[in-house]
What does this fold into?
Amino acid sequence: MNAKKQYNKVVLAYSGGLDTSIIIPWLKETYGVKDVIAVCGNVGQGKELDGLYEKAINTGASDAYIEDLTEEFITDYVYPTMQAGAVYEGKYLLGTSFARPVIAKRLVEIAKEVGADAICHGATGKGNDQVRFELTVKALAPEIDIIAPWRIWDIKSREEEIEYAQARNIPVPVDKEHNYSMDANIWHLSHEGSDLEDPWNEPKDDLYMICKTPEEAPDKPCYFTIEFEQGIPVSIDGQKYGPVELVAKLNELGAENGVGIDDLVENRLVGMKSRGVYENPGGRILYTAHAGLEMLTLDKDTMHYKEGVAAKYAELVYDGKWFCPLREALAAFVAETQKTVTGTVRMKLYKGNCTHVGLKSPYSLYSEEFATFGEDEVYDHKDAEGFINLFGLPLKVRALALKDKEI
It folds into this structure.
């Protein structure tokens, strides 16, 4: 990006934190921007949004949008990913990964509405989010420029950011008691940095801001049911909920019982490993329940093939390729598999453990009659001999061909 280029109007992905607070005056000083339009996508951050409009205007923004994207986030991003069974590197439920494209999509829409010259974000030059924001912009509005201050400005540390803000009388949020880099939305809360940067350090109990630790959780197990319709959760214990309310309710149940804490060292897209601790109570419950129902309702070939799709789907989402053709094609495949994923799952939560303990569906492929070792009208035990002879023929032929030969 040419730092000498001038822009008239820029849309900024705004959170109200230290980075985006100082980006507003920096854009004006660096590019001569007349209008900075601050846009915050509400995906369930909670109290972080309090007073955000006023903060943006007081910091120098010409206008600010606080966009409620929470339901769209769940229905169009969270649920399709959950239906795919997509988990990055075995643990990460992609809470930050698929929050970025829904926010970036809205940035693009507003940029087009207001006639902005560029879109700006505060993601760091070492992180994954810069890729996720920018790939979305490139896919949806390739004509709009992108400004990434952390890749071009002279500021090198948090201390320098604070000095920059103080010199311009910009109030900045500095929380010295909880010195972690965090990302929050209705799906998860992530923690990075500070003592977590040493993977030998066990996370401190006061790290957790949503979940109880398993030791603090009740000594009595918690049971409830979740009903699914074509792979979408619709009710808990028979009570219907909208998408936002349902995830919020499961967050409460999971957090109370110490469910959804994941500690992992993950491979970042940009090349290095990073250590993160995630609180994902509702997400862990939904993934577990949904996978259980699929065991009952999907045939073997589809289920096994879908396992490979899940890994690729997770990688694409993690890498910021939500709007790529392959992710969309895989989503179409997944949607087809969900037509029979309807039924009820009974869940059991106990001191960090999350298991399904009951499954039923009108589309169940399980038959107690066929599964029994006893006689039935469908399975003839004598058929097994011919099946095994044919199934094992390649092994027998190879063994005969190599008999008495040294290999």
Q: What stands out?
A: DSSP finds 13 helices and 14 strands in the chain. The mean pLDDT is 94.
